[in-house]
Design goal:
Structural class: alpha/beta
Oligomer: single chain
Distance between the termini: 24 Å
Number of domains: 2
Length: about 425
């Protein structure tokens, strides 16, 4: 069979080739990595957690780049373009280079079946190994212990807040999920915990591996002032930091988590205060309480689990309430819609509900059942674009519209706004 020639065709093939979208385990991906026969000597920072991973990765990339390092960044999922997942020196890798990397992995995998995520993770690392990089930041896709990213030993492991998500794979409670996240820890190497109330399973695993783990609210402190803020990491103080470009009180904690990770790698990746300040001010990530319009105020947020919904609720509560608030909500079928709505119901006057397509999508009718049971005011639409347009038509200049519930929800609104969508 002829191999695809371009990136879109490759991605289409990978999406349909493996019978399971998610198949955790390192044996298969390790076999193919060995067949690639390459190695690297750059420091690796691996970031796991339920929420905040992408933001922490963005701060790490921005600070290291501001410090003059040549940095590779691998994240998931993307919103509009696959290229968002693989960045070198703060620039998305081009289609041709990504397609070439996918071909190389294909040529050595033999009869080893790889999922979409596994194949693309190996391709990203192959690219990084050919680029004379000085640091690489890897975002875990799901869990940690058995995620393909965990094939690569972390010089510093970061675990952001842990909460309930992907329970069918990771377990039904924070302790089970914390154990999976702890899988990225490496014996004797520094680790950072951005959770103020970390699961005991994470703490115990760090102790068992003699990992010097710094925790937010313990060794890592955030002190906010009116115009700036400071971060303390053990005995070091990082003062007069600019307000993060990304909105939300929790962004200070995400930035502090990134600063603490670099503090742990001072010998390998020293950074100046100027680079830290510049990176905190520059770091941006689409879909995180992103304001895409005013009059009415329009907000996009990828919040799709209870913890993220509570953070979104706090951000909304901090805004002056001048008019009505309209929600545009669409979620995947395997997410806890009831808990998400519980966290946010006090923030909205009316809900525009939409369905998501695909095997994991939840129909608007099923979503409507959840909100009707809570007695909320709703309108039901077939798709996100229709729901967004209806909310925009209904809203007055002083109103607020927020679209959330999934990366897919944000992607569809962004595609509508920009007039393009690459899948």
């Amino acid at each position: 069979m002829a191999l695809p020639s371009g990136l879109p065709d490759w991605l289409a093939l990978l999406e349909t080739r493996h019978p399971k979208a998610i198949q955790l385990g390192l044996e298969r991906v390790s076999r193919v990595w060995s067949a690639l026969g390459i190695s690297f000597d750059f420091p690796v920072i691996t970031v796991a957690g339920t929420n905040g991973k992408g933001s922490v990765c963005a701060y790490l990339e921005a600070i290291l780049t501001s410090a003059g390092y040549r940095v590779g960044l691998y994240t998931s999922p993307h919103i509009l373009r696959f290229n968002e997942r693989v960045r070198i020196s703060s620039q998305e890798v081009d289609d041709e280079s990504l397609a070439q990397a996918l071909v190389v992995v294909e040529q050595v995998r033999g009869d080893t079946a790889l999922t979409y995520f596994e194949h693309t993770t190996l391709a990203a690392m192959w690219l990084f190994c050919r680029q004379s990089l000085e640091a690489v930041v890897l975002e875990v896709g799901l869990g940690g212990r058995l995620d393909a990213v965990n094939l690569f030993d972390a010089d510093c492991a970061v675990v952001t807040p842990v909460d309930l998500d992907h329970i069918e794979y990771l377990g039904p409670d924070r302790e089970s999920i914390g154990f999976e996240k702890a899988g990225i820890l490496r014996r004797g190497r520094p680790a950072i915990c951005g959770d103020r109330n970390p699961p005991e399973s994470l703490i115990k695993q760090a102790e068992a591996l003699a990992v010097p783990m710094l925790c937010l609210g313990r060794e890592i402190e955030v002190d906010r002032h009116e115009n700036d803020w400071l971060c303390r990491v053990v005995g070091s103080v990082f003062p007069a930091l600019p307000q993060p470009a990304m909105v939300g009180a929790y962004q200070h904690e995400n930035a502090a988590t990134a600063i603490a990770a670099l503090h742990g790698l001072t010998q390998q990746l020293p950074v100046t205060m100027a680079a830290i300040r510049q990176g905190v001010a520059r770091a941006r990530l689409p879909g995180r309480f992103q304001i895409v319009g005013t009059e009415p105020l329009r907000i996009l947020d990828v919040a799709h689990n209870p913890h993220a919904a509570r953070a979104l609720a706090a951000n909304l509560a901090a805004l002056p309430r001048l008019g009505r608030r309209l929600a545009v909500l669409a979620m995947l079928a395997d997410k806890d819609a009831g808990a998400v709505v519980d966290a946010l119901e006090a923030q909205f006057d009316h809900w525009h509900l939409a369905g998501l397509s695909g095997t994991r999508g939840r129909t608007s009718a099923r979503l409507a059942d959840v909100l009707r049971s809570k007695g909320l005011s709703i309108s039901v639409h077939d798709d996100v674009a229709t729901a967004w347009q209806a909310a925009c038509q209904e809203a007055k200049a002083t109103d607020t519209i927020a679209a959330f519930g999934s990366f897919h929800t944000v992607a569809e609104v962004m595609a509508l706004i920009s007039g393009k969508f690459d899948g």
